[in-house]
Write a structure and sequence with these properties.
This protein is of the alpha+beta class and 175 residues long. It has a single domain, classed as Chalcone isomerase. 22% of the residues lie in helices and 25% in strands. The protein has four helices and five strands. The chain has a five-stranded antiparallel sheet with strand order 1-2-3-4-5. The longest helix is centred in the first third of the chain and has 19 residues. The radius of gyration is 21 Å and the shape is globular.
Length: 175
């Protein structure tokens, strides 16, 4: 009888533990990591004159340890800040002495995270491996209105680069 009681108790504990385990996050469910500004930069001051934006992209330590041959490991998180660009009174995009676009206001904060089994709820045609996405307004707390299918569609052609834009540029600079 004690064995049966012990087995039942163990099964009940296991079942309750499994029921409390969180599932894989879906698009829109990642938070902005509080310490991301202390992370290494993936790329800095990415110039996007077509979108009138400058982007700062941070990567967590797991991503920073990655190699081009191995791709980014499960647990990788990128945070991208999108800034508007200063414009002159005649509507031209302002550049600094270095010729680069000058940042103005923070517009959005995007988070892209990778984990085992993540992103599997997405239609097959838009699946980006194990990546999920979320968009926030500049405050980093209010969810943005973006359709995350747009993020997925933009990253989809990069399957051979782990669905990450500027993959080669990052790893070339890392050498």
């Amino acid at each position: 009888m004690p064995r049966l009681l012990t087995a039942c108790l163990a099964a009940a504990l296991l079942a309750s533990g499994c029921a409390m385990m969180p599932g894989a996050p879906k698009d829109g469910e990642l938070a902005v990591p509080a310490d991301y500004k202390s992370w290494p930069k993936f790329l800095s001051a990415v110039q996007r004159p077509d979108a009138k934006q400058v982007r700062e992209i941070y990567m967590n330590p797991a991503a920073a340890a990655a190699t081009a041959a191995g791709g980014f490991p499960q647990g990788t998180v990128f945070v991208m800040e999108n800034y508007s660009v200063l414009e002159s009174t005649d509507g031209k995009l302002a550049t600094g002495p270095d010729g680069k676009l000058m940042k103005a206001d923070l517009l959005r904060v995007f988070v892209m995270g990778k984990g085992a089994g993540w992103g599997q709820d997405v239609p097959e045609a838009l699946r980006n491996g194990n990546w999920v996405y979320v968009s926030y307004l500049a405050d980093g707390r209010t969810k943005g209105p973006e359709d995350l299918a747009t993020c997925r569609a933009c990253h989809l052609p990069l399957a051979n680069k782990d669905f990450v834009h500027r993959y080669d540029e990052h790893f070339s600079a890392k050498k």
